[in-house]
Every structure is written in structure tokens, then in C-alpha cells.
Write a structure and sequence with these properties.
Elements lengths: L1 H21 L19 H11 L3 H14 L4 H14 L2 H14 L4 H13 L3 H15 L4 H16 L1
């Protein structure tokens, strides 16, 4: 009987953990997520909250933890890239954006953020490639297109 009770307790805990893992946001918010209705784990949601507070170190740790659970989460890779970029680690930022786009070539947020990173790195032609990709994905009407276009135009005016 003890084994049965232990088995039942394990099943209940596993079921509750699964529900917790499946809860969360839709990946939206700024250019960060794909907005595809995908549910995320608690570390992912806490990472988004850390980004909103501009706590880059915490956001990095939380998105890394989230990716331990689901390494195929393009949204988490994108947010991790954004966090690295804002923490000043451009090399890792580009690696994470690249992974997000490898997993989801149509990820509008990743195209926007990597384009912005290229502007920071003074590589306007690469930024414009991602602007063109956004135009193919959503025309000129999506917010990601407008944000990246504005960033590129400001950089060009600065010379």
C-alpha cells in the first residue's frame, strides 16, 4: 500500500509540475516573442519580468534556466540575446539571435532585435537584411518592422 501511495504522490506532483510548466505568457511583449500563443515555463515568465525591470543579469540566468527545460524555445533564445545585448555581451547576443532564427526563421522579434544589434555593431547592411526579412514576413505594417526601420534611420542620420 505504501508503494501505491508513493506512486500516487509522484503522479500528482508530476501533474502539477506539468500544469505549472504549461502556464505563462504568449511570448508577446515588444519584439521579444513570436506571439504565437506558445506557453512558457515559470523561469521564462520571470525572465520577461526581469527584462521589464532591466535586470539583465537576472534575466540572463532565468532564460538560461528556461532553456534547460526547452532548448528549442526560440522566444527564450531571443530574449536571452536581448538580455546579453543590454548587458554588453554582443558576441553571446548574436549567438542567441542566430539560434532563435535557426529554430524559427520567421521570428519577427528575433529579426528586429538582431537588426538592432547590427546597428549597434555599425553593420547597417546586415541590419537592412533583417529589415527586408521583416518586410517579407509582415509587410511594412508590423511594429517590429517600424522599430527596426526607425533604429536604422537614426543610425544613418548620425553617420
Amino acid at each position: 500500500m505504501k508503494r501505491w501511495a508513493l506512486y500516487l504522490a509522484i503522479c500528482v506532483v508530476a501533474g502539477v509540475s506539468g500544469l505549472t510548466y504549461g502556464a505563462g505568457g504568449d511570448g508577446g511583449g515588444g519584439g521579444g516573442g513570436s506571439g504565437d500563443g506558445v506557453k512558457h515555463d515559470a523561469s521564462y515568465d520571470a525572465g520577461v519580468a526581469a527584462v521589464e525591470k532591466q535586470d539583465w543579469k537576472r534575466a540572463i540566468a532565468l532564460f538560461q534556466n528556461s532553456l534547460r527545460w526547452d532548448r528549442f524555445n526560440a522566444d527564450a533564445h531571443n530574449w536571452l540575446g536581448f538580455s546579453y545585448r543590454n548587458a554588453g555581451d554582443m558576441k553571446r547576443a548574436f549567438e542567441e539571435y542566430e539560434e532563435a532564427l535557426r529554430l524559427d526563421p520567421q521570428h519577427k522579434g528575433a529579426h528586429e532585435y538582431v537588426g538592432e544589434a547590427y546597428v549597434i555593431a555599425n553593420n547597417i547592411p546586415k541590419a537592412e537584411e533583417h529589415l527586408a526579412a521583416l518586410e517579407k514576413l509582415c509587410g511594412r505594417s508590423c511594429p517590429e518592422y517600424h522599430e527596426l526601420e526607425e533604429t536604422i534611420e537614426k543610425a544613418k542620420k548620425r553617420g
